[in-house]
Amino acid sequence: MASGDYTVHCDSDDWMDVHAIKELYTFALSGHYDMVFYDFYRSDGVSTYASAPRKVSTNNKDFLMSSLLCGRLMGSLCGALIKRSLYDGITFPRQNMNEDLATIIQLVWNSRNVGYLMKPFYYYFFNPASITSYGSAEIQINKLNQRKENLDLIFTFLRSKGIYEKYTDEINALKVGSRMYLDRYMLMPRIRRIWHNTYPEINSITVIRHSKMRTLSKIEYFGSLLGVYPIFKYLKNIWKDLRK
Questions:
Q1: Which residue blocks in 115-214 are alpha helix, DSSP H?
Q2: DSSP secondary-structure letter at 90?
Q3: I need a labelling partner for 125 at 20 to 30 A (CA). Which of 9, 133, 165, 185 fits?
Q4: Is 0.85 surpassed by the pTM of this model?
Q5: Which of 9-23, 39-53, 80-94 is predicted least confidently?
Q6: Pick the residue with more confidence: 124 or 58?
Q7: Measured between alpha carbons, how far is residue 59 from residues 35, 211, 214 in Å?
Q8: Angle at 166 between CA 165 and CA 171, to 5 degrees
Q9: Mean pLDDT of 15-19
Q10: What pLDDT does 242 receive?
Q11: Would you give the distance in Å from CA 224 to the centre of its chain?
């Protein structure tokens, strides 16, 4: 069990800069920060490149919460130095999809002072065979159910703090993201029924138009809503090939 003042997370197939802990800890002490966000590198085992700076407005908790919920800020425990005491009393997720987001939302809420050190300290290894990659229809349904359970934890937490309605657009974007686990299989009638019955309150085009989603994600979602996502995906891949 961790016993230090601060914790960091590192997945077994990732790694951190050799100077990361010292610099982050020094920065946290200098600013009296409960949490310190930082940037990361991505690697596929062949090439490595730095992510774009995350432009975190750490002096605005509302902006932080919104950014995490809608994906502007990656909701990963691997992207922050975290004061251990922030974990006291939180509810830990039980499933494997979006478990970090379900945790870090609670930690940000518990924090008083959050900092951002604009340096890439973390090396994130992207594994095409990981649990988050696409699988069979049944595997995708299982991922969807796991994500829903962890999102329910987030929604329950937001309601308990009286701020659920404040983030309606971000929440709708999360719900749309859940459905996207099934997009590849939308031509299967059974999958299409599950898709429509997952958060049926977002079947309205008006809801999605106002959700905090990227424009491309909205187009992909409308393709699924119309039942033509696989065709859209095929045309999108052709367009990518032509641009190479």
A1: 137-160, 168-179, 189-197, 205-210
A2: P
A3: 185
A4: no
A5: 39-53
A6: 124
A7: 12, 24, 25
A8: 70
A9: 87
A10: 63
A11: 21
CA distance 162 to 156: 10
Residue 183 pLDDT = 81
Q: Which residue has the tokens 């959700």?
A: 211
CA distance 140 to 233: 17
**Token duo for residue 179:** 């459905």
Mean pLDDT of 174-196: 87
Provide the greatest CA pair distance for the chain: 57
Q: Per-residue confidence at 227, pLDDT binned at 50, 70, 90?
A: low
Decide: 58 and 114 in contact? Cβ < 8 Å.
Answer: yes
Secondary structure element (H or E) that encloses residue 49, with its range? strand 48-50
**Burial of 242 by CB count in 10 Å (0-12 exposed, 13-18 middle, 19+ buried)?**
exposed
Burial category of 72 from C-beta neighbours within 10 Å (exposed 0-12, middle 13-18, buried 19 and up): middle
Amino acid sitting at position 81: L
Task: Convert the pLDDT of each residue in 128-144 to its tens digit.
Answer: 555 555 678 899 999 99
Structure token pair of residue 161? 């703090």
3-state secondary structure (DSSP) of residue 114: strand
Alpha carbons 131 and 140: distance in angstroms, whole number? 10
Structural element, H or E, at residue 39:
strand 35-43
Sequence-distant (≥ 6) Cβ neighbours of residue 91 within 8 angstroms: 106, 153, 157
